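Give me C-alpha cells for this 363-residue protein.
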Amino acid sequence: MLDKIGKGYKSLIVKPLGSNIESFLSQLRDEGIRYIYIDPSLLSSSSLDYFVTVYESDDADMKVCSSIDELIKTKSSGKSAGLLVNVKSKRDEDTIVDAAKHNADFVLVDADDWKIIPLENIIAKLQGMKSMILAYARDANEVRTLLNVLQVGVDGVVLEASDIASVRQSLVYMQSKEFKLVYAVVKDVRDSGVGERACIDTASMLKVGEGMLIGSRANFLFLMHNEAIGSEFTSPRPFRVNAGAVHCYTLMPDGRTKYLSEIEAGDEVLIVNMDGKARNAIVGRVKIETRPMRLVKAEVDVDGVKEEGSIIVQNAETIRFIGRDNRLIAVTDLKVGDEVLVYAKGSRGRHFGIEVDEFILEK
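Here you go.
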C-alpha cells in the first residue's frame, strides 16, 4: 500500500537525491509514491499538497527526532514523530526500545554496515508494540533484505534514490508494483512459419493467473500465461513461461525492457498476475529452440488513441493468453474478436531498454 503507512503495511519512503528534485518527484507520483524523506522547504506548493513529508523539521508531516527528549516534546504537541538511531552497539538497541515505550510513531534504524542480527533483535523486541520499524536502504537489494528479516521484516524502508529504476525495483520486491491491464481485441491470428522462441524457466513456482508481459512493441505487452496447466500431451511446468519469439520485449523489474534473447540465468524477471500485481522471479534457465510460430495482432484504445501491438509465439496448445472472465485461451484456439489482457500505453522510444521521449513508429 503506497498511500498508507503503519503496522501491517510494507511502506516505501523515498529520499530523493540529486539536483533535479521536482522532475524526480513527478516520476514518483507516476509510481504512486506518497511518502518522501525531504525538507518541506524545498518543495513546491503542489508537491506539498500531494506528498507526505518525513524529515528533521517541525514543518514535516512526520518529524524525525534525534533524542528521546526531543521525541517526548514533539509527541506532547500532538505531532507524529519518531526517533532516528544509528545502530552501532547493544546500547542503541535499548534506545530504540525506550523510544517505543515513549509512544514513538516510528523508529528509523540506520547502520553504516548492515548486520542482520541487530535488526532481528529490534524486530523481536518491538513485537506487540505500536511503533513502526523503518530502516534505511541505499539500494533495492538492501530493500529486499530488510523486508525479509525473520520472515517478518521491517514495516517500511527509507530508500535513498537518485533515479526511478531503483524505486521501481523496490516496489517489485515489496510486491506493491501494479500494472493497469486492459483487454485488447484480437485483429489477426495466423501461422508465421518457423522461428526461434524462448522459454523462461524461473526458480519460482508460478500460480494460475500469473505470467510475463511480452510483446513486439515495448508499449504494448501481452500477459503470457505460465505452464502451470498442462495439456493432453504435456505435464504442467509451473516454473516456465513459454514467452515468445527471441525478438520480443519483456518488461524488467526496474522498468527497462530486454529482448528475450538477452535474458540469461541469474536475471530477475517480472511476474505479473491477471490483476496487475507484480513480483520478481530469478531465471534458472532460458531455452531457445526452433519451433513453428504464430503471429497475433491486437488493438486497444489508450487515452483516445488506437494502439496496435503484436506478438509471435510458438504454435502450441500450452501457450496461453488470458481472456475475459479469467479464461485461459491457447494460441491454437485464439481467433479474431477474442479479447486478451495486455499492458498498453502511448508510444515512446527506448534506448538500450530505457524509455525516452522521441518519435518512434513500430509496425
